[in-house]
């Protein structure tokens, strides 16, 4: 039996396999979103920013999650797909973060060794974006930004604040050696859709004030 766990020791057991989960997910999405909400979300440049460590290669779920969300009509940003030759690296990534509604942080064992991962996470937090953490082969307590002579003190502090906030955000944990990948995709997409809906509802309430 595969397990997918929420942080802080709350576990959700998976008792079913989902070899072809798209149809079920699409039905859930249709039930959760009104046509008006879907239309408004579709008008933004990107709905979701996927933050991950590219050097994890085939072990990362990022490309699978990107395609899964696209199939649901959501517009995710993934650097290997969203950037073209000639794009300024930081400018394009920062613009995608500022323009998105929700971030997904795929936190892996080498995540905190990457300047780009930490910069993106810090910017998501500083921009007050919703962040859905996926603790991928790592426990929240194992995430640590180490001292580095390469980073000024203020940059280290910025990164550590972002990581600490993310460690205490409810998310998903996943063991790639024996976890159910279809279940992870379904759970992650459910979380993304829920947060998109809540952000849209909040924006509507602000506009009506």
Care to describe what's here?
With 209 residues, this protein is α/β, with parallel strands linked by helices. It has helices at 22-32, 35-42, 62-71, 79-82, 89-99, 115-126, 153-167, 181-208; strands spanning 3-6, 10-13, 48-51, 76-77, 102-107, 130-136, 172-174. The chain has a seven-stranded mixed beta sheet, with helices on both faces. Helix 1 (22-32) runs parallel beside helix 8 and helix 6 crosses helix 7. The longest helix has 28 residues, at 181-208.
Distance between the termini: 49 Å
Low-confidence stretches: 1-43
Helix content: 40-55%
Mean pLDDT: 80
Strands in their spatial order, largest beta sheet: 2-1-7-6-5-3-4
Q: How do the SSEs run, as a string of H and E? A: EEHHEHEHHEHEHEH
Structural class: alpha/beta
**Biggest sheet descriptor:** 7 strands, mixed
- Helix count, DSSP H or I runs of 4 or more residues: 8
Number of strands: 7
- Hey, roughly how much beta strand do the residues contain? 5-15%
Described by the principal axes of the CA atoms, the overall outline is globular
Instruction: Please compute the radius of gyration using only Cα atoms.
Output: 17 Å
Summary?
The protein is of the alpha/beta class and 209 residues long.
Pick out its properties:
single chain, 209 residues, alpha/beta, seven-stranded mixed sheet, 47% helix, disordered N terminus
SSE blueprint:
Elements: E1 3-6, E2 10-13, H1 22-32, H2 35-42, E3 48-51, H3 62-71, E4 76-77, H4 79-82, H5 89-99, E5 102-107, H6 115-126, E6 130-136, H7 153-167, E7 172-174, H8 181-208
Parallel strand pairs: 3-4, 3-5, 5-6, 6-7
Antiparallel strand pairs: 1-2, 1-7
Helix pairs in contact: 1-8, 6-7
